[in-house]
Amino acid sequence: MSKPSDLTLVIIPTYNELENLPLITGRLRKAAPEVDILIVDDNSPDGTGEAADKLAAEDSNIKVLHREGKGGLLGAYLAGFEWGLEQGYTVLCEMDADGSHAPEQLHLLLEKIDAGADLVIGSRYVKGGKVVNWPKKRWALSKGGNLYIGLALGSGLTDMTAGYRAFRRELLESLNFDELSAAGYIFQVDIARRAVTAGWDVVEVPITFTEREIGESKLDGSFVKDSLLEVTKWGIAHRGQQLKEIADIAVGMAKFEIDNRSKKRKF
């Protein structure tokens, strides 16, 4: 019997990941030989794109998508999603090139998809999840930020900024990619909140996130400010909608009570 994960594409965006690329693709091919890999390279000046082409020439499960310049992580994933949907994949996954997302744990995400989930997030902060080689200050900032995000949006999720994910194609097809926020890396939160709000089945599985050993992080300081500003705006809108719904219910109950009393008086 076929499963959704039988047609899985793992999207790996790259920019200057020449040393990491063969390591992550090698681990992924060993851990999940049945999945296909799409490397989305943003014209890396260090030769990552050429290395990706060589890997693809040697392995039919590896595909490459070249972009003209450094267009950011959101743009890379959107290009990957669009390519994967056009090719007919039923499950599309996000994975970092730097080794922070263990390919050996991909099966945890795919098993939840096959069990009925629409979006599975590999979480650092759900029970059983952990972070390796992060300074305490960075862990506290990420943990605290995700706590704030979860409370502000009322999502019930512990790690909405996480980038290790598996999607059913139907969920991705339901999104308007042009509406996603490009502020910092907040698009990960944006996608998750839209999925929760729309009633898709969003679940988390515990993963071990390991800080990169080779190369430099692409994250800059503006990420925190830009992200939290966006989340605060969404949170205010979310709470405002909740208050409106509560008010509508209260008005309806009051109207029902008034109508009921009027009927009693007639008798």
Automatic annotation (TrEMBL):
GO terms for biological process: glycolipid biosynthetic process. Keywords: Glycosyltransferase, Transferase. SUPFAM superfamilies: Nucleotide-diphospho-sugar transferases (SSF53448). GO terms for cellular component: membrane. GO terms for molecular function: dolichyl-phosphate beta-D-mannosyltransferase activity. Residues 10-174 form the Glycosyltransferase 2-like domain. Signal peptide: none annotated. It is an enzyme of class 2 (transferase). It catalyses: a di-trans,poly-cis-dolichyl phosphate + GDP-alpha-D-mannose = a di-trans,poly-cis-dolichyl beta-D-mannosyl phosphate + GDP. Its EC number is 2.4.1.83. The keyword Methyltransferase does not apply. Belongs to the glycosyltransferase 2 family. PANTHER family: DOLICHOL-PHOSPHATE MANNOSYLTRANSFERASE SUBUNIT 1 (PTHR43398). This is dolichyl-phosphate beta-D-mannosyltransferase. It comes from Corynebacterium epidermidicanis. The gene is ppm1.
